[in-house]
Automatic annotation (TrEMBL):
Keywords: Cytoplasm, Hydrolase, Nucleotide metabolism. The lineage of its organism: Bacteria, Pseudomonadati, Pseudomonadota, Alphaproteobacteria, Rhodobacterales. It comes from Thalassovita litoralis. Gene3D superfamilies: 3.90.950.10. Its EC number is 3.6.1.9. GO terms for biological process: nucleotide metabolic process. SUPFAM superfamilies: ITPase-like. It comes from the Bacteria. Nucleoside triphosphate pyrophosphatase that hydrolyzes dTTP and UTP. May have a dual role in cell division arrest and in preventing the incorporation of modified nucleotides into cellular nucleic acids. The record marks 11, 69, 151 as: Important for substrate specificity. GO terms for cellular component: cytoplasm. This is dTTP/UTP pyrophosphatase.
Length: 191
């Protein structure tokens, strides 16, 4: 049984390695990630994971794992910023406030799909101009939902979370392990 990771994210690959899972192949799907008109963050995130897992080419016996991480400030989806200006806009909007990080995971084997989503509450400290500019200068915001990654320099900006740390990084490990086991993928096997 082969495991195909439908993600180019090095963070997801590293998180899987924490539970002893190494993908046999990595095939990031190419889908349109544009939110639908007035789509709310949690349904959007679940739809993205579902569409990604269906878009990855695989044999019937292969297990395909995809995920999507969405940062939500109220009803607003904070995607991956296009540039430093948009990253600054996102970070200033979240400065001193709580927001939600939703990570949806989808696992497919043949025609069966197993799904879970995990919502974590995150508080960002009130950012000074100096902190904001120093963080933007790291370029760590690039390619990250909401313009930050908690596992990098932005960890210093997040004093509090309630929920799954690994979900905020990009893959909730407890839930992912359960989905892989549901699909018949053997975890904790001897090498």
């Amino acid at each position: 049984m082969r495991l195909i990771l439908g993600s180019g994210s090095p963070r997801r690959k590293e998180l899987l390695a924490q539970i002893g899972v190494v993908a046999d192949d990595i095939r990031p799907p190419d889908i349109d990630e544009t939110p639908l008109k007035s789509e709310l963050p949690r349904p959007y995130c679940a739809r993205m994971a579902r569409e990604k897992v269906q878009a990855v080419p695989a044999d019937a016996g292969d297990v395909v794992l995809c995920a999507d991480t969405t940062v939500a400030l109220g009803r607003r989806i904070m995607g991956k910023p296009a540039n430093a200006g948009e990253a600054a806009e996102f970070l200033l909007a979240m400065s001193g406030r709580r927001h939600k990080v939703i990570t949806a995971v989808a696992v497919r084997r043949g025609d069966c799909v197993w799904e879970r989503d995990v919502v974590t509450d995150v508080k960002m400290k009130r950012l000074s101009d100096e902190e904001l500019n120093a963080y933007l200068a790291t370029n760590d915001w690039q390619g990250k939902a909401g313009g930050y990654g908690i596992q990098g320099p932005a960890g210093a900006l997040i004093p509090w979370i309630s929920g799954s740390f690994t979900a905020v990084v990009g893959l909730p490990l407890a839930e992912t392990a359960g989905l892989l086991q549901a699909a018949g993928y053997p975890l904790w096997r001897q090498g």
